[in-house]
Amino acid sequence: MHRRFLVPSALAASVLLAIPASAADYVPGAPGIGDPYYPASGNGGYDVSHYDLRLKYQPATDVLEGTATILATTTQNLSRFNLDLGLKAGEVRVNGRKAAFTTSGEQELEITPAVPLEKGRTVSVVVRYAGKPSEVRIGGWTAWHRTPDGGVAAQEPDSAAWWFPSNDHPLDKATFDVSVSVPDGTQAISNGVLQSQSSRLGWTRYNWRSNKPQATYLATLAVGKFDITTGTTANGLPVLNAYSKDLGDNAGAARASIERTAEVAEWLEGVFGPYPFNALGGYVPNVTSGYALETQTRPFYSPRQFNNGANVSVVVHELAHQWYGDSVSVDNWKDIWVNEGFARYSQWLWSEKEGEGTAQELADYVYATRAAEDPFWTVKPGDPGPDNQFHIAVYDRGALALQALRNEIGDEDFFAVLKGWPTEFAYGNAQVGDFVAYAERVSGKPLAALFDTWLYQPVKPAVPAAAEAGVAARSAAATPESESVPVPVPVQPRSWKKIAETNTIHEHGGHDEH
Q1: Confidence check: pLDDT of 330 > 80
Q2: C-alpha angle 282/421/315, rounded to 5°?
Q3: Tens digit of pLDDT for each residue in 200-219?
Q4: Does position 339 have pLDDT exceeding 50, yes or no?
Q5: CA distances in angstroms from 454 to 146, 399, 405, listed in the order given
């Protein structure tokens, strides 16, 4: 038997007010966002809308002091949540009140607010922190480059933890204000538009704004002594390029390449549609690395990219990422093909435009020069695995898949796909499967089998399959039924060497660059 107790309404109301929601309703946010390649990357329980970073950096000592204000919305009832940060936090406030915090692992800052946070609530988080970024190691590596006159943050798949606290995964993109104080005579370069600069008591502060959603790994900071060139595009977009003053013999080649940024971007607009951001440019610091990176609005280039002279192809690659990788970002890192396959193919299209070899000729050359037993063919660009995320196959085999698609659906639909995709998913995230579905919708053709052959099968597509896709078609035409006929090597396209010189682009994901 259940007895029913009657409580006067006023007393009932007071009892309800006195009893908070069950503690079981509030749980910690996950310490990772759920990426199968990088389980520790990002965090669960909230979504960031804006980062305001106020920094001070002393090049002589490599000491970085920062106050980060993070605006976010909770996606669950939170008792605790994490940020990714490798430097040491000194104070944390949540909605203006001091919060308890501790650290775990190599990059987890665990924050317990004074009052649990309800789902759907707008939250402000202020973190004061400091440290020497060059001394931070996460997974045994660093994303911070020391230079003779400063330091640089630029790396993939993550670099934020070395200089600011964040939800460090492309799934959580946000706008950025980055304000950096450095000694007079030194510059601070970041993403977007330079809003203002001012000097006081021997320090100069630079205020940068990136006003479109930006993945945390695409945020960059470079402090040093630079020669800076500025201008505008025909459409009035501000262009800013920066070059370390001590690039040595590579200085001329670097400038001859990066100064063509506006020209390349204008051409890419004809391929991919309107440029998606508020600024354009690039920078070349005096670092010893060999890679380049598509840091949003202002790509990073290592001087070694220009060891053999000017190379506009690398500029094409990194600027193509502004559409494919920056505006449309990976959903998880296994979807890296939606970044790299397209950036590589843009180099092939530039070669075609310059009369140095068509995309078809480059595809034929790649296919013919990679023997069936080459491990190149065992890498699956559609899901390469974390160890092969930046393998050359993701680039070249990934571009082969696009040439096969072009031959299957024809130029009109193919270029409609290339231009429509960045509009369809602008400022968001997408998977490989999303692109396949989009291409099927635009072309009206079933394409799953084609993409399975070129992106997911760990073998070299047989000659008949390649011929059917229009790759190596000339060499396969005589014996279309044979799968074992060797494919004669085509004449090397004139652009091949310059494109091959950019192969070290894929090393930007390697953790061997310290």
Answers
A1: yes
A2: 20
A3: 999 999 999 999 999 999 99
A4: yes
A5: 40, 9, 10
| Torsion angle, alpha carbons of 127, 131, 135, 140, to 10 | -10
Is 111:94 a contact under the CB 8 Å cutoff? yes
Residue 455 CA to residue 379 CA, distance in Å, equals 9
**CA dist., res. 346 & res. 324, Å (int):** 10
What is the enclosing helix (H) or strand (E) of 268? helix 261-272
pLDDT, residue 468, reads 66
Q: Is the dihedral of CA 156, 157, 163, 169 positive or negative?
A: positive
Secondary structure (DSSP) of 18-82:
HSPPPGGG-EEPPSS---SS-TTSS-SSEEEEEEEEEEEEETTTTEEEEEEEEEEEESS-EEEEE
> In degrees rounded to 5, what are phi and psi of residue 208?
-110, 145
Helix (H, G, I), strand (E, B), or coil: what is residue 355? Answer: coil
Structure token digits, residue 51: 């980062």
Query: Residue 125 to residues 32, 53, 81: CA-CA distances in angstroms?
Result: 19, 12, 11
The secondary structure element, H or E, covering residue 4 is: none
| Centroid of chain to Cα 401 | 21
The helix (run of H) or strand (run of E) holding residue 393 is helix 392-424
Q: Pull the structure tokens for residue 379.
A: 């890498």
Q: Above 60 in pLDDT, residue 437?
A: yes
Burial of 106 (0-12, 13-18, 19+ CB in 10 A): middle
Q: Are 504 and 305 in contact (CB under 8 A)?
A: yes
User: Which residue matches tokens 């000491």?
Assistant: 63
Q: Which residue's entry shows tokens 């229009």?
A: 470
The model's pLDDT over 184-202, given as tens digits with 9 standing for 90+, comes to 999 999 999 999 999 999 9
How far is it, in rounded angstroms, from Cα 497 to Cα 399? 17
pLDDT in tens, 271-306: 999 999 999 999 999 999 999 999 999 999 999 999
What is the amino acid identity at position 165? P
Q: How far apart are CA 305 and CA 303, in angstroms?
A: 5
C-alpha 121 chain-centroid distance? 28
Longest dimension (CA), the chain: 94
DSSP code, position 411: H
Residues 6+ apart with CB under 8 A from 414: 405, 406
Rounded to whole angstroms, how far apart are CA atoms 84 and 168?
A: 6
What is the average per-residue pLDDT within 379-388?
97
- When the pLDDT of each residue in the chain is averaged and rounded to a whole number, the result is 92
Q: Return d(Cα 453, Cα 367) in angstroms, integer.
A: 14
Residues 6+ apart with CB under 8 A from 406: 359, 414, 470
| C-alpha to C-alpha distance for 174 and 238, rounded to whole angstroms | 21
Per the listing, tokens 């670097």 go with 254
CA 493 to chain centre: 30
